[in-house]
Write a structure and sequence with these properties.
heterodimer, A: 242 residues, six-stranded mixed β-sheet, four-stranded antiparallel β-sheet, 9 helices, 38% helix, globular, B: 253 residues, 82% helix, elongated, binds adenosine-5'-triphosphate, binds magnesium ion
């Protein structure tokens, strides 16, 4: 079995505070792995280390065989991230934002056009495609921010609370898009919506205080806690009932 | 290629801010007109030549470049605080791409601005019966590039260290002192003494001086001030990109 991501005792300290405590896990290729945890559990910090936005204090991780400590440039080429904060260029239009992102990942000119049109379709951005990003509502900016991660055709995709700030319809749409990516892309997802994780995940890890307290399929977690839904199982694990 | 794409982005961000046009183009042209009117009111006997169009045009072109510093500074400092910039750190962009992506577009803007300032100066020259030598004008624009580099470097440096609230304040201090110490508004040498020596040691005076010699065709005298400015330009640029690189590395914490 080949792993797309292998995390080995990854640790991150901020001064005296340890945000991530020697966590290890593997993600199988082309599956969706959810990282759950209460606020401050260390989810974003983990994703930041995996994407090169933060340097680990110790430990290592391999993304498609490339080490994030010694081979980060290769890691960056094959992955992309939709960060927890919406991240778009304010004075560029929606279309320009997408083309810019594709361009810096060295996608060739003809394909940039194709991929851009594809993303505009996929995220229903047609009516705003020529508006400057800063004039869009928060939810629309969010969709653009996610589309900018997808346009580069990453083999590994990180979605840090992608549905934050999206309305019910947009969230359902995004679920559909994510489902469409399954079996094609390896995805790490964080979310505070249990039904989202329940619905989309192949495997789930629950982080508490920088450590992974439980890891397995939805069924595994339910069995482990003796609960019949993820929300109850999550609460049980997060409150330290295990 | 990547740095080119990032450059295009920077250029768009700057050009889509209406303030850029007011400061980078409007202001130098307005100053040219006003100072020419002032010059017309100064009696011949006073012997004030500093506002004559042949002295004024290179001075104002230089002055315009100091606003390029302001825009570089604002762009760098604004970018540094955004989630967008952080996400780019996760992309294959390297620090050299970022550096080139800030330098190239503002350098192009600087040259463009000089060209426009001189077009305005030539038009004004027609009114006051002064004929510019086109070759010297072009030479003057080229000779101003080292000064542009000095200002761009200051822009990158302060943009890296300051947030976009503090940046305009510091930049306006430099804009004002550069124009004073550079001898745009007054004849530094007629003041003399330690003050003049101090001015001579700075790139501003040398940059303005080189540009003025270029415009009047005094090529022999032009070389030294231009080389001094270029030396300063390269030095502060290297220093600025060193600081920017370090700061970017620290941002990945
Ligand atoms: N740059 C930083 N400096 C200091 N402490 C930090 C920094 N970034 C994160 N932390 C701390 O690390 C811990 C984990 O933060 P992280 O953002 O990873 O949590 P999270 O699981 O993503 O939470 P949320 O669900 O609220 O997004 C928190 O206690 C946070 O305060
Ligand atoms: Mg988070």
């Amino acid at each position: 079995m080949k792993y797309a991501i292998e995390v080995n005792k990854l640790r991150k300290e901020f001064g005296l505070k340890t945000a991530v405590k020697d966590i290890s896990f593997q993600v199988q290729e082309k599956t969706l792995f959810s990282l759950l945890g209460v606020n401050g559990a260390g989810k974003t910090t983990t994703i930041r280390m995996l994407t090169g936005l933060s340097r680990p204090t110790s430990g290592d991780a391999f993304v498609l065989g490339h080490s994030i400590t010694t081979d980060l440039n290769e890691v960056k080429k094959v992955s992309n991230v939709s960060t927890q904060d919406t991240a778009v260029a304010p004075n560029l239009t929606v279309r320009e934002n997408l083309e810019f992102m594709a361009g810096i990942y060295n996608i060739d000119k003809k394909q940039i056009q194709e991929r851009t049109n594809e993303m505009i379709q996929l995220f229903s951005l047609q009516e705003v495609e020529n508006s400057k990003a800063k004039t869009l509502s928060g939810g629309w900016q969010r969709k653009l921010s996610i589309a900018m991660a997808l346009i580069t055709d990453p083999k590994v995709l990180y979605l840090d609370e992608p549905t934050l700030g999206l309305d019910v319809l947009a969230r359902k749409d995004l679920w559909r898009i994510i489902e469409g990516l399954k079996k094609k892309v390896t995805i790490i997802l964080t979310t505070h919506y249990m039904e989202e994780a329940e619905h989309l995940s192949d495997a789930i890890a629950v982080m508490v205080g920088g450590e992974i307290k439980a890891l397995g399929t939805l069924e595994d977690l339910k069995k482990l806690t003796g609960k019949d839904n993820l929300e109850d199982a999550f609460v049980e694990i997060a409150e330290g009932g295990l | 290629m990547r740095s080119f794409i990032f450059s295009k982005r920077t250029l768009k961000e700057i050009l889509r801010d209406p303030l850029s046009y007011i400061f980078c183009l409007g202001f130098p042209i307005v100053m040219l007109v006003i100072m020419t009117i002032v010059d017309q009111s100064i009696p011949e006997e006073a012997g004030m030549t500093i506002f004559h169009i042949d002295n004024l045009a290179p001075g104002i072109a230089f002055f315009g470049l100091s606003f390029i510093m302001l825009f570089t500074c604002l762009q760098v400092s604004k970018d540094r605080s955004t989630a967008f910039m952080l996400r780019l750190y996760a992309s294959p962009l390297k620090s050299l791409d970022f550096i080139a992506g800030y330098t190239l577009p503002v350098l192009v803007l600087a040259v463009l601005q000089s060209v426009i300032s001189f077009i305005a100066a030539i038009v004004i020259g027609a009114f006051v019966d002064y004929q510019f030598d086109l070759v010297n004008v072009i030479l003057c624009i080229l000779v101003l590039i080292p000064s542009a580099l000095v200002f761009i470097s200051f822009g990158i440096f302060f943009g890296t260290l300051l947030n976009d609230k503090a940046a305009p304040g510091i930049c306006s201090i430099i804009i004002t002192s550069a124009s004073m110490l550079g001898g745009i508004w007054m004849d530094v040498d007629s003041i003399g003494g330690t003050f003049a020596k101090f001015c001579h040691a700075l790139p501003f005076y040398q940059g303005v001086r080189g540009a003025r010699f270029a415009l009047t065709g005094e090529y022999g005298d032009m070389v030294k001030p231009v080389l001094i400015t270029l030396g300063y330009g390269i030095l502060v640029y290297l220093f600025a990109i060193f600081v920017l690189r370090r700061k970017m590395q620290q941002d990945v914490k």
